[in-house]
Design a protein that fits this description.
heterotrimer; A mainly alpha (about 300); B alpha/beta (about 400); C mainly alpha (about 350); A: about 300 residues; mainly alpha; ABC transporter involved in vitamin B12 uptake, BtuC; two-stranded antiparallel sheet; C: about 350 residues; two-stranded antiparallel ribbon; 15 helices; about 5% strand
């Protein structure tokens, strides 16, 4: 394999990995505060992207994306208030099954709002054919957007969780809900807030990846499965690790394709994942001693 | 006391089944001649193949309504029973058995995918119910089952057009990528079989998943092999991604797609990257630019106009396959002069020169597809619109 | 006395199966049996999963994988034509042992394949073996990690099914022959065999119920429940939690494989849609709707929800209705549909409720 080709595989891995990473970030926020894996996270992405595509018909792109993020954030709040909050003293499994139900219902509703056709947002910079050349290989500028937005989200989340009262309150809820309550934290609103944040970030992710992946009503579940995989791989609750794990999985898949038939690339990736799960269940990047501490 | 639980269970079973069993009383037929002809349809209106099933279901509904308004066929109306399989073969099996055993339909239109069609093939054959599949795989009609037909063009013919065009362009080394669907599988098989005879060598032959969101990895492998052209054989939105990704990694060789590319959305999905794509397809997509005396012109423009004005979306060749299925069925009923399954089946085998959206159908006892090589036209994309390909 | 009491509901259920037959025959709707039969095979998966989730407290998002292993093993072994090796000694030996079957497919072609009995045994063996190999490391994981690992297993099976030429890739395998059982009975989906298959399927389901009831009311069952409530406590009492969990995992995998194998014979085919993650998720959801640690609830919901879906009662809204039921039950009746609040008084009398 010559060098340019090697770089090209790496860039293709980064393209795929950046998508996985940005999806995984959303999983972490809800997990952090509630311990729930939100299986409807993929649907938040698609709702966001579809709303943005519809709004882009009448408004400039940035406004459309902003609108989509706000609408999806509101949807996140509604979902929490109507479905999650009603369930008192629920086991985590029960809440997870509710999110599975939500994901199915949201997907079907989207089918009836936006039909089965595939759509996409325009490329943020350039067009479908523009590329950036790095070391003799090529990559779409949109991938840089995805990476950039991921970095901004991770940085913003870190600041939020470390330096604001609300963020610290959310972390307190994650560590020990009872203790947080006793300190005067309104734990119920913290859960609502985490759903809003996750939905909003999901929507933004959906918009940024839409030019690359295209958007169709039933794409949420496959994306969510990858996102979940990556979140576990990085160690649940750790956004920075999620990005790293996303890129790792993307690169792994890309280089598997270089030697194996591509129909088995996912098999190879999952085998690696299973090995990691068995030998290092706290995730690739979590230090054992802090893996219990689910800070962002 | 456990028995009480069992009693509750039993009550529940009965409560659920008894009303069900009461609700579907078929109305007593007033007179045999005026009774509607029952035709079943199984399409994956939802689920992973909804981009096929949805336009297909819309098309047959539109066709049946129009037909019934103009008096139906043989003075009888068509009663269309459309079922949604969600793309699952096991559900298609259940629905096919219902349509055959309970509704006693004359024929089943669909299913949309090859897997479903192959799995209900024997059920329809045993139930002596005509199956007019809208799926691509040639195994649906080879080996031949006397009650099973299909309307989309043959994969092998599409492959032949692609190879012919390659010959014109002097291309001998290609990369083939296909999706992991029944459609992709059919194309892959035929491309592999026919390449040597056409003097073409397949250097890379890869299958990607139908949900793929980015294909630069596979295409990098293709690029590394130094091919002169890429053939992508799939039916889902990933077709748009292939075109974009090739441009993005600067794999500057011609891109051939299959007849699964017949949906303008896929072109829009890849924007200017789609320009120059070459693919064999039925003439529906270029109906407007056909010469006025072309046999298909009138029918194609009419279908396109009707569909687009009624559903406010672009017509695709997939809907066209369903149009052909119901068209062939009504033509055969007319020809047979009755709605007896055996007579209609025989009539289909004797249909010649029926103009449909996919081409001109000439069925025979050996050919249950009825389309020739001339059903295809090489098309290309110019300024993000379909156009007839000229070298 | 106590031991026997747990089987009374099985007898009652068997009687109800007959009553249902009579009711369907009286109303002229015997063709509902087709979908009831199919649903019963899916219910087998649900029963096994209920044992695993409700009693051993282990989630599995990969059970469609075991269903597919059962079904595909059957499909490959009974349709793969050994005709080309007819003259080889190995085939001759197998043939003289009665392990092969000569039959004709719908096109009148002669096929020499493995017999369904051999295929069935192979399917069970393979499923148990794979469950063991997967279970050994995976059962040690907890919570989300176990969910992820089983999900990963399911994905691997799905990708293999879609990728392997032998397994028919996207088209799956069709023309699977009927399975001749004893005394002229056969697992066969054609209309003349409808009634006997209805009983065969229910026999399989009730046998699975007897086996499961037996298990949960035995020492193993008590151990399992103690694992569910507090694994540490169980462990400290000297219960080998790991072994019990692994055994349940294998048993539930076997139930799924039986369901897959028999349904494949009944349908005459199997396709990759049986191995998708969505199917696995669906099974988990049905167990939840049935009430998690409630075998009867799981069985009933397994039959009922699959029946409604296979009948196409909700048309294009099938998934939407399923999702809505899921949310509704989890919010309003977390103990499962069979224990909606106003029945609490009734069900509180039952011995099994004591745990809750």
């Amino acid at each position: 394999m010559d060098f340019a080709l090697f770089v090209q595989y790496a860039l293709s891995g980064i393209t795929v990995g950046s998508v996985y990473a940005i999806v995984a970030i959303g999983f972490n926020i809800i997990y952090c505060t509630t311990g729930i894996i939100n299986f409807a996270q993929g649907e938040f992405l698609i709702v966001g992207a579809m709303t943005a595509i519809s709004l882009a018909q009448v408004a400039p792109l940035p406004v459309a994306i902003l609108g989509a993020v706000l609408i999806t954030t509101a949807l996140g709040a509604v979902v929490e208030l109507v479905f999650i909050r009603q369930v008192r003293n629920a086991s985590v499994l029960r809440l997870i099954i509710i999110t599975i139900g939500l994901s199915i219902v949201m997907r079907e509703v989207m089918l009836h709002i936006w039909d089965e056709q595939v759509r996409s947002l325009p490329y943020f910079t350039g067009t479908e054919v523009s590329t950036v050349t790095i070391l003799g290989a090529h990559i779409s500028p949109q991938v840089l957007w995805v990476l950039g937005v991921s970095a901004v989200i991770v940085a913003a989340l870190t600041l939020f969780f470390r330096c604001t009262t609300t963020g610290r309150a959310m972390r307190a809820c994650a560590d020990d809900r009872m203790a947080a309550c006793l300190c005067g934290v309104n734990d119920r609103w913290m859960v609502t807030l985490s759903f809003m944040l996750s939905a909003g970030i999901g929507a933004l992710a959906g918009c940024v990846v839409s030019p690359i992946t295209q958007t169709q009503y039933d794409m949420g579940a496959p994306l969510a499965i990858k996102g979940f995989t990556v979140a576990i791989l990085g160690g649940m609750g750790n956004s920075m690790a999620a990005v790293a794990a996303g890129l790792f999985l993307g690169l792994l898949e890309a280089f598997v394709v270089s030697v194996l038939p591509s129909s088995y690339k996912e098999v190879a990736a999952i085998v690696v994942l299973l090995l990691i799960l068995v030998f290092r269940p706290s995730g690739l990047f979590a230090r054992r001693d802090v893996s219990a501490l689910r800070a962002a | 006391m456990q028995t009480r639980l069992a009693a509750i269970l039993g009550g529940l079973i009965l409560a659920c089944v008894v009303p069900l069993s009461g609700c579907k009383k078929s109305p007593e037929a007033p007179a045999p001649e005026a009774a509607p002809i029952k035709v079943g349809a199984i399409f994956s209106v939802t689920g992973p193949a909804s981009f096929l099933g949805a336009p297909e279901a819309k098309t047959v509904q539109m066709f049946a309504e129009k037909l019934n308004q103009s008096g139906g066929v043989l003075g009888r109306k068509i009663e269309l029973l459309v079922r949604d399989s969600g793309g699952s073969p096991e559900k298609a099996i259940s629905l096919a058995k219902q349509l055959i055993d309970e509704e006693k339909v004359l024929a089943i239109l669909g299913p949309s995918t090859s897997g479903e069609s192959l799995q209900i093939k024997s059920i329809c054959q045993e139930g002596q119910t005509i199956l007019l599949s809208c799926a691509a795989a040639e195994e649906i009609v080879v080996p031949l089952a006397s009650y099973v037909f299909k309307t989309p063009q043959k994969d092998s013919q599409a492959a032949q057009w692609i190879f012919n065009t390659m010959k014109d362009l002097g291309i001998t080394k290609i990369g083939v990528i296909t999706s992991n669907t029944g459609f992709g599988k059919g194309g892959k098989t035929h491309l592999e079989q026919m390449a040597p005879a056409n003097g073409v060598e397949i250097l890379v032959n890869e299958v990607y998943e139908k949900e793929a969101t980015d294909l630069t990895g596979v295409l990098t492998k293709v690029k590394g092999a130094g091919v002169q052209a890429v053939v992508n054989w799939s039916i889902e939105p990933a077709q748009g991604i292939v075109a974009k990704n090739m441009k993005q990694i600067q794999l500057d060789v011609p891109l051939f797609q299959s007849h699964g590319y017949g949906n303008i959305k896929y072109v829009q999905g890849s924007g200017e990257a789609a320009n120059g794509t070459i693919f064999p397809c039925g003439r529906l997509l270029v109906a407007d630019s056909l010469p006025a005396n072309h046999p298909q012109k009138a029918l194609l423009t009419e279908y396109k106009r009707d569909y687009e004005s009624r559903y406010n979306e672009d017509a695709s060749t997939f809907g066209g396959h369903a149009y052909d299925a119901i068209l062939i069925l009504t033509e055969a009923i007319k020809k047979a002069g009755s709605a007896d399954p055996k007579a209609v089946r025989d009539a289909i085998e004797n249909l010649k020169g029926v103009v449909g959206t996919a081409g001109v159908f000439n069925f025979s006892a050996q050919d249950h597809n009825g389309l020739g090589l001339d059903a295809f036209e090489m098309l290309t994309v110019k300024d993000q619109k379909f156009a007839i390909y000229q070298k | 006395m106590m031991r026997l009491r747990i089987y009374y509901p099985v007898l009652a259920a068997a009687a109800l199966v007959v009553v249902l037959h009579v009711a369907l025959a009286a109303s002229g709707k015997t063709y509902y049996m087709t979908q009831i039969t199919m649903s019963a095979y899916y219910a087998l998966v649900v029963i096994g999963l209920c044992l695993l989730m409700g009693y051993a407290g282990q989630i599995s998002l990969g059970h469609a994988g075991f269903f597919a292993i059962g079904g595909y093993t059957i499909a490959v072994l009974t349709t793969y034509d050994l005709g080309n090796w007819r003259e080889t000694p190995a085939i001759g030996l197998l043939r003289s042992l009665g392990l092969l079957m000569q039959w004709q497919d719908m096109y009148g072609r002669d096929i020499l394949s493995f017999s369904p009995w051999l295929a069935f045994a192979a399917a069970m063996l393979l499923a148990a073996l794979i469950a063991l190999v997967i279970g050994l490391p995976v059962i040690r994981l907890k919570g989300h990690y176990l969910a992820m690992a089983t999900l990963g297993f399911g994905l691997i099976i799905y990708r293999i099914v879609l990728g392997a030429r032998l397994l028919g890739q996207a088209d799956g395998i069709s023309n699977v022959p009927a399975f001749g059982l004893v005394g002229g009975l056969q697992v066969n989906g054609r209309a003349p065999f409808r009634v006997q298959n209805y009983y065969i399927a229910w026999f399989a389901v009730l046998a699975a119920m007897v086996l499961s009831l037996n298990l949960i009311h035995s020492r193993v069952g008590r151990a399992l429940r103690s694992i569910h409530q507090s694994e540490e406590a169980a462990h400290s009492l000297g219960i080998d939690t790991y072994r019990y969990k692994l055994a349940t995992f294998i048993l539930s995998a076997l139930f799924a494989a039986v369901g897959g194998a028999l349904l494949t014979h009944y349908n005459g085919s199997i396709g990759p849609s049986e191995a998708t993650v969505m199917k696995s998720v669906r099974y988990v959801a049905i167990v939840a709707v049935g009430g998690m640690a409630n075998l009867w609830g799981a069985m009933l919901m397994g039959v009922l929800l699959n029946f409604l879906s296979l009948r196409g009662v909700f048309g294009s809204f099938d998934d939407a209705v399923f999702g809505a039921i899921l949310i509704g039950v989890m919010i309003l009746a977390p103990q499962g549909l069979l224990q909606v609040p106003r029945w609490r008084t009734v069900t509180a009398l039952l011995p099994r409720r004591k745990r809750a």
